[in-house]
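Exocyst complex component 5
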Amino acid sequence: EPFVADEYIERLAWRTPGGGSRGGEAFDPKRLLEEFVNHIQELQVMDERIQRKVEKLEQQCQKEAKEFAKKVQELQKSNQVAFQHFQELDEHISYVATKVCHLGDQLEGVNTPRQRAVEAQKLMKYFNEFLDGELKSDVFTNSEKIKEAADIIQKLHLIAQELPFDSLMDFCCYPLSSLGKYHDLECQLIQEFTSAQRRGEISRMREVAAVLLHFKGYSHCVDVYIKQCQEGAFLRNDVFEDAAILCQRVNKQVGEVFSNPETVLAKLIQNIFEVKLQSYVKDQLEEHRKSDAEQYLKNLYDLYTRTTNLSSKLMEFNLGTDKQTFLSKLIKSIFISYLENYIEVEIGYLKSRSAMILQRYYDSKNHQKRSIGTGGIQDLKERIRQRTNLPLGPSIDTHGETFLSQEVVVNLLQETKQAFERCHRLSDPSDLPKNAFRIFSMLVEFLCTEHIDYALETGLAGIPSSDSKNANLYFLDVVHQANTIFHLFDKQFNDHLMPLISSSPKLSECLQKKKDIIEQMEVKLDMGIDRTLNCMIGQMKHILAAEQKKTDFKPEDENNVLIQYTNACVKVCGYVRKQVEKIRNSMDGKNVDTVLMELGVRFHRLIYEHLQQYSYSCMGGMLAICDVAEYRKCAKDFKIALVLQLFDTLHALCNLLVVAPDNLKQVCSGEQLANLDKNILHSFVQLRVDYRSARLARHFS
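Structure:
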């Protein structure tokens, strides 16, 4: 523990009798002083003893340090002597090695010519045997020494090829006999390689292949190997999977057999593509090429995809320097005749398939599709209708049918989606944007023009005139379905077309085409919604004309009015609430508020003009206020601030029908009426039965 002087003194005082630290003991300073003096003396004696011990240890340490330094010096001297001996030994070893290398060079200089002379003598011996026409050497007669015989025959064959023609004619029997032996031996080696391959003897195959490497028939050996590798490899229906498994197996083996494995494996792959795959692809496609375009396109896409997937797997193998170009050329050689006119087949199929989907739908509705006219007259009608919003031509009763089908739309989009996928896979990169644009044009023609635009035209023709009674308004259903279809159309545009054209000039062309078709649709939708709102207002007019009576606001018995609001008000509000709900269900986003605001403004104008047609007694004015209050409650369902403000103002105007003559000026200067034109205020005051009284006229003036 750390030494603390205060604690040490306390413990010493505590142990000393009379130190005053123990309870009940008398304090004795002399005794405590005596104890302290004695203890100090003991500490001094202990300090001297320890100091002598330290000095002794220091002397001993210095002595041992000197001895250690002396020993280190002796070791350094010994190390220097040993290093000198090592250098001398190294120099001696280098000298001996130089002598040995020189001696070896001399021996090699003597031995190499000797070996060449021996080999030349042997070749001359074998040469003589060929000249004599009798092959007596064991190397030619013993089948187990076929490797040595092949080496000799190869060398003799090379010698024969290097001899001048005149010399060759002198030994004409030699080349004939050696050539025959050359070919016989070559055939034996290939046969031996074939047998070894069937037995699965890799080492023997490697030996024979190494011998054949210097023969002209080496390529035939490779062909035999490739042919035998494929025996029994394509027994299943999936030729692509079989090819991948075969190449995986051969890739492991070919490096153990041949000195150029990448060349052999590339030749095997080329053989598979040009023989097996090309034959399989032709059988699959030619069957449906002219009879069934749908199946033909599906098979073409599937086969091309599986071929490229196989190519991706083969990229893992060593096929030489430019294996990507090598495999691409193989794929192109198989499919080039089918890809050249792919887009024409695609467009033709898409056109016929889309037309069939639409016709099948209209047939299911027992509907004979009427032609939408084109040309000068039709364009003139269209411009007049857009500017005047007049229904040109007879109204068509669609019986509530919108002639829009999400099933048809999904089928068209699905066909187009598959066409985009095939286009992406099968088109040349330079033609991809152009081909994708053609497919998009087909989608616009059949989905937007032939289906949606036709439904809008039919829906517009089916909207009754604004003065029709009990008219059924189905155009909002057309709007609802068209809105849903637009979302699906836009999603496919972004998900499937944009990736194909995003980096090409066709992007702006597609965007402009999409913008034009949507603007064209929006014009017709706006026109139809406007005419539908007119019909709604017309229906409200019929309700008010049929249900509202003059006696409602000028009852015969002022004291016996039991109703809170008129029957006409109840029916109009019920009708309006249904239409508001229908509008909310048919549209989304800001379109809901825009249409509801327009309907609300027209609804307010109708009620305003309707109230102007009657005279009001005091009790009738109260009833009119109750009606307007109910209309205002109905206007709250619109959730449009402007519409509610209009009805608030109308409600304030109706107060002029019942307010006391003395309070007219005060009411007219109120917050809601102060900013209104005085003529409007005057027109409402004139509706009072008592307006002719001098008092009322005087107060209002």
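The chain has 25 helices and no strands.
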